[in-house]
Recover the amino acids of this structure.
């Protein structure tokens, strides 16, 4: 089903899938917990004006799972190594949900190679009190309820695994396991991250699918408030994965932000 | 053969009104502590009876469930270590991959071994899927954590001359030097449960006792893999005492009463499966390949009868459960024949973990079941000569 399959790259002896297309300013797209397929329309939209690099995180999809990797910190260092290996500079880093968490962890460590940061429905920080979950416990609800909460249009997230190619079903199973490996506890966040976001000193856009009921808009606004000068924008008719439900608008918002905030 | 009496120590009053889940999220408002106290005392009394009748004892723990009130097996072990006289005390099991602190586990179990004067059998287990939301341990990689906890506990129990240090992936300790040290040397026997061939081989290589539950006429394949692993370390074929099987038991003086009792014991199987679906398969509990098959709707059958009929043990009839060797049920002579038949099929099985109480079985019902078994089935089982695996076709 994939006309344009992913190639792969080896970073620090770890082989991961890498979808690469388009030309121009480099853009690192960090996928959410549900993975990414090469056919995802947002990639073509983003590639219309940038050089998109969309790696599949270690442990997800068909990418190798190093035994020693079990935190988002590990993934952030992995991507810093990838940027260095490819000598990418002035790169736009875009992450959705779990990918947004990785993007934030990259940016607090080193923004040296980054020009812009876009966090879409990003998870990774703790906002509420100790008895209030910020992020719905996706391991405590049925799939049918999950798609209702995660999507503006639940059909977008509904899959018929019986008719899907074997490799794709296995990739989905690996995505589920890898997400838990990195984010089971503390659940979907790093208790230290919020207090370190002040270190981000590049133009940052927090994009938010307005119909997300996995993580609330107020959580997104708290994320934005912790990053100096960050901008917050809603995307209507989209839930937790705005890049899937509104790929055109998603790409346009990224381009407009980069244009407006570039010297 | 040894026979271990087992009950999950249930709170059956809650089974009537569970709203679709007996585990994890069943509000504990439904637990009346006064009823719970009466039940605990009663279950301990029934184990004391088992001790008097010459049977051994098995305890377990689960969490946040009305199917099993024992949420810390150390409490039951503590009571029984002091109050019983001769029975082996098997914990099967202790979910060590879930515990924050394996040093505490080593201290607790060594103390139980000493108080009981060397009667402890230590069963270490992975735990059922529903334990992960309760312990909040990551189900991904839990077996790595399990084996590190195991290594640490064994090291703590067998180090006697100077404190040692432990700095590893999951656990960090300094000056480890447990008091008391265990009674049994080098340490109490280690048991574990499994339903997978990969783990069965590992247990065989280590020479630990392998126990299975509900595997019926699928058991032989697991035992044979265990035997391969056992012999791969240069040992002769394992004796029957390396194998354990958890079977439900209902015995009565006539067949009709036995069948009625069988229904009551089988209520365990019906209730154990009542869990809110998202808790049934946390990520990482099964392999990704197995999960991919599940996502496709392919669920491999687990329980077979001797003539290879597939049964669902959650809904099977008493006759089907007997046919699948999940329930041993009938007159003393029938129950003896069923158990021996199963041992022959297994190529030897030396430890029957007997669920002789379940659900809302009354005290009188349970006492009669245990007494009849101990007096009329068990003496013959003790005399029974186990087959050697090589002499029995799989």
């Amino acid at each position: 089903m994939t006309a344009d399959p992913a190639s792969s790259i080896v970073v620090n002896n770890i082989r991961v899938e890498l979808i690469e297309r388009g030309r121009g300013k480099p853009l690192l797209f960090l996928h959410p917990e549900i993975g990414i397929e090469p056919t995802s329309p947002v990639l073509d939209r983003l590639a219309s004006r940038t050089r998109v690099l969309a790696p599949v995180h270690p442990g997800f999809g068909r990418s190798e799972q190093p035994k020693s990797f079990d935190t988002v910190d590990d993934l952030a260092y992995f991507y810093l190594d990838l940027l260095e290996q490819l000598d990418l500079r002035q790169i736009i880093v875009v992450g959705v949900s779990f990918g947004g968490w990785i993007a934030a962890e990259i940016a607090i460590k080193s923004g040296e190679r980054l020009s812009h940061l876009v966090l879409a429905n990003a998870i990774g920080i703790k906002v509420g009190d100790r008895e209030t979950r910020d992020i719905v416990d996706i391991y405590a609800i049925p799939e049918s309820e999950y798609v209702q909460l995660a999507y503006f249009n639940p059909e977008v997230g509904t899959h018929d695994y019986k008719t899907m190619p074997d490799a794709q079903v296995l990739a989905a199973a690996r995505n589920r396991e890898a997400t838990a490996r990195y984010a089971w506890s503390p659940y979907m966040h790093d208790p230290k991250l919020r207090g370190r976001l002040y270190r981000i000193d590049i133009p940052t856009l927090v994009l938010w699918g307005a119909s997300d009921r996995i993580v609330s808009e107020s959580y997104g606004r708290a994320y934005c408030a912790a990053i100096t000068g960050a901008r917050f924008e809603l995307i209507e008719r989209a839930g937790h994965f705005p890049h899937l439900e509104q790929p055109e608008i998603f790409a346009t918002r990224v381009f407009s932000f980069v244009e407006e905030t570039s010297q | 053969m040894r026979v271990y009496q087992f009950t999950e120590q249930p709170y059956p009053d809650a089974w009537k009104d569970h709203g679709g889940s007996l585990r994890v999220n069943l509000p504990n408002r439904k637990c009346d502590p006064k009823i719970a106290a009466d039940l605990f005392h009663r279950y301990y009394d029934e184990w004391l009876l088992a001790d008097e009748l010459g049977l051994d004892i098995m305890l377990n723990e689960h969490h946040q469930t009305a199917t099993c009130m024992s949420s810390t097996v150390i409490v039951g072990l503590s009571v029984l270590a002091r109050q019983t006289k001769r029975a082996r005390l098997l914990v099967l099991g202790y979910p060590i991959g879930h515990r924050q602190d394996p040093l505490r586990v080593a201290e607790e179990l060594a103390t139980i071994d000493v108080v009981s004067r060397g009667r402890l059998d230590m069963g270490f287990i992975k735990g059922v899927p529903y334990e992960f939301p309760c312990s909040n341990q990551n189900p991904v990689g839990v077996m790595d954590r399990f084996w590190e906890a195991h290594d640490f506990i064994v090291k703590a129990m067998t180090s006697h001359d100077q404190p040692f240090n432990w700095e590893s992936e999951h656990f960090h300790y300094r000056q480890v030097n447990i008091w008391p040290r265990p009674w049994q040397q080098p340490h109490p026997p280690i048991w574990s449960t499994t339903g997978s061939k990969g783990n069965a081989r590992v247990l065989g290589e280590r020479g630990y006792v392998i126990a299975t539950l509900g595997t019926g006429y699928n058991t032989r394949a697991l035992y044979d893999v265990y035997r391969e692993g056992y012999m791969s370390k240069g040992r002769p074929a394992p004796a029957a005492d390396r194998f354990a099987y958890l079977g439900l038991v209902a015995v009565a003086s006539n067949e009709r009463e036995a069948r009625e009792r069988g229904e009551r014991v089988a209520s365990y199987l019906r209730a154990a499966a009542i869990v809110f679906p998202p808790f049934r398969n946390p990520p990482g509990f099964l392999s990704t390949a197995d999960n991919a098959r599940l996502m496709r709707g392919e669920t491999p059958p687990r329980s077979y009868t001797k003539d290879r009929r597939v049964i669902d043990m959650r809904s099977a009839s008493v006759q089907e459960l007997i046919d699948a060797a999940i329930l041993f049920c009938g007159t003393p002579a029938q129950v003896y024949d069923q158990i021996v038949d199963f041992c022959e099929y297994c190529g030897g099985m030396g430890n029957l973990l007997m669920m002789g109480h379940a659900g809302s079985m009354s005290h009188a019902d349970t006492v009669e079941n245990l007494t009849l078994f101990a007096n009329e089935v068990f003496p013959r089982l003790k005399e029974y000569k186990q087959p050697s695996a090589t002499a029995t076709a799989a």
